[in-house]
Amino acid sequence: MLESYRSRRQRKTNSMNKQSLAIRFSIYIIVVLYVFADIYWFNGPLRRTVESMKPGSSEEVQKVRESKVAAIIFGEGITLAQLDMRVLRHLHRKGSTIDDCPPERLYQLRLILLQELMLDRIVEGKLRVRPELNPSEEMVDEAVAEVKDQFNTKAEANAAMKSAGMTNRQLSEHYAQWLEQMVYVDRLVAGNEDRMPVEDHIEAYYEKHQDAFILPERYHLRHLFLTTLGKDPSLVGEEISAIHLKIASGQTSFVQMVTDHSEDPATQPIGGDLGWMALDRLPGSIPTEGIASLNPGEVSDPIQSRIGWHLFDLIEKRPARKLELQEVRGMIREHLAHQQRVRYADALKRVMENDAEARVVFESLTEPFSFAKDEQ
To answer: At 310, phi and psi to the nearest 5?
Structure first.
């Protein structure tokens, strides 16, 4: 009897399970058909919701305008107010105000400064998942100390920080973040041998590019010029020949003739002095053969160019020579630093184009300025 009872109970349970499964399956089919019909056949609420979530949809544009987001980086927004704070700081540094900024210039400024903000956010986003790039406390302390050492006293340093609205902790956090970014961006730069510090590469660059540091033969010249524009070139040629004869015969000096006759407004007030230069730096396609053969103290024969007639007085001549490292160290340092900045910019551009989930909301950049005049 007990066995019969258990058997009936089991059959009843199985029957209920089958009925429940059939009901769930029917409901599932109905839901799927409803979703499919709503999205693909009818303009139902589900389809309208999906459409509103598409990038560039009118609903999304309106939502962005209401939230005033200027860009989205890694799913996080840069608000228009944050961007306009950067605009205010930029204008303040330039000694200007928002009143001096018409809508067209405001749009351009926002676009330029937004790129800076986006790069900052991209690097910050990368650093969140790269804890091994965190600088040591010693590195941060050294960077902070270097800043404070620029002041004569601790009181002056504290006063400057207070004026900037920054505490000691905020200063340390700022330089910690800056050091993180430098380490990260430095690792993006291809070619370890070319990386900073610049000082380590100055001598190697000098040795590798010695031909670029050959100073050509240089001449210290005075110049007398008569234009032929709107004049008869032959008559001007006769005039300058007469001037040359007076100088060559010792009747007068070259400087006096420049003062009395030269039509070069740049050099006439200073006796025609051109300073030191290589002959290939002379303007106006002037033939140089008659100048290169001069000895100091000699005056050239009249030389004709396409714009007039010229006389040159050679004061002194220096032979070509190789510049010493100390003479060009500053120039090489500036060149290498520029190359480094270019590589950094290219590396950051690659990050933005290939690795970052970034999008500019151009519609927001045309919005009115975020802060009223009384808030500035």
So the answer is: -135, 150
pLDDT, position 192:
40
* Residues contacting 87, CB < 8 A, separation 6+: 98, 101, 106, 109, 110, 113, 369
- Location of each CATH 3.10.50.40 domain in the chain: 217-319
Give the pLDDT confidence score for residue 374 in this predicted structure: 43
Give the pLDDT score at 193: 40
Structural domain 217-319, CATH architecture: Roll (3.10)
pLDDT at 302: 95
pLDDT under 50: residue ranges of the chain: 2, 53-57, 60-61, 64-65, 190-196, 373-376
Query: CA 157 to CA 147: how far, in whole Å?
Result: 9
Amino acid identity for residue 208 in this structure = K
Which tokens go with 146?
Answer: 């270097």
Residue closest to 292 by CA, chosen among 222, 223, 240, 217: 217
SS3 53: helix
The span from the CA of 297 to the CA of 230, in Å, is 33
Tell me how far CA of residue 335 lies from CA of 175, 325, 347, in angstroms.
26, 14, 18
The residues, ordered by sequence, that sit 6+ positions from 216 with a Cβ below 8 Å of its Cβ are 278, 280, 320
